[in-house]
Specification:
Two copies of one chain form a homodimer. Chain A has helices spanning 13-28, 61-81, 96-107, 130-137; strands spanning 4-8, 32-37, 87-91, 111-115, 141-145. With 146 residues, chain A is of the alpha/beta class. Chain A has one domain (4-145): Rossmann fold. In chain A, strand 4, helix 4 (130-137) and strand 5 form a beta-alpha-beta unit. The longest helix of chain A has 21 residues, at 61-81. Chain A starts with a strand and ends with a strand. The model of chain A has no long low-confidence stretch (mean pLDDT 86). Strand 5 of chain A pairs antiparallel with strand 5 of chain B, so a sheet runs across the interface.
Amino acid sequence: MFHSILVPIDGSEHAKKALAVACQLAQQEQASLILLHIPEQLAQDTLLVWGIGAVEMKASEEDLEAAGRQIRDRATEAARDAGVEHVEAMIAQGDPTRTILDEARRRNVDAIVMGSRGLGDLKGLVVGSVSHKVSHAADCTVITVR
Amino acid sequence: MFHSILVPIDGSEHAKKALAVACQLAQQEQASLILLHIPEQLAQDTLLVWGIGAVEMKASEEDLEAAGRQIRDRATEAARDAGVEHVEAMIAQGDPTRTILDEARRRNVDAIVMGSRGLGDLKGLVVGSVSHKVSHAADCTVITVR
């Protein structure tokens, strides 16, 4: 059903659950996973999963980059541990919604699997979460995991 | 990851896609699927998938019941065709959001997999879709398929 799946990942618990669902879907048909991390300046101190400590509100660019690489690497590891063979991971800069949509189109993925709320969404509750916007604008199937 | 999955089904294309995702998740770990249909009086003529014709706006209760049984049976067939062994299907009356949440709790399911919008949601756009409300109030993982 799905041959290539895009999984936007931040350090959030929602993203971790979404990755687990994506891995299960990918395994069955040997689909390839594309993990996408988009570093964001967060509005509050945030606890990241995957064994990474909190990134502070006023984190320097270097700190954010280092955390980003760690998130990418841990997520890749988690996908491989779950038995997915084809895993690719990338870091891209930009507005999260637009970057996810652009990447999904560019790579022509069959599905986007993402958490219902990411780390950056607390400040964005008024205008709606990234997943909400993505699921309305994407050309492909969007699976939102809560 | 998921041992029992609740799949609310109406005759919509979204529900059909959700069922396909649920089947793929279920197959891998031999999870059981519980298909739940909640007949609704629709606000407009509606084209149902699964080879069932449109149900008219002023459908009689008998017509709605017959359509409901057909939706249940076709969905069960689709799940079995997709290779899922443990499929159970039920029809329940009531408010869709509340009925889905109640059934999920009562059956202690691990996940609810549902379409992002069902047939009854066109009239309900202002107050939000059923899937939106379910994903905010459920105790378990909710996977919304668009």
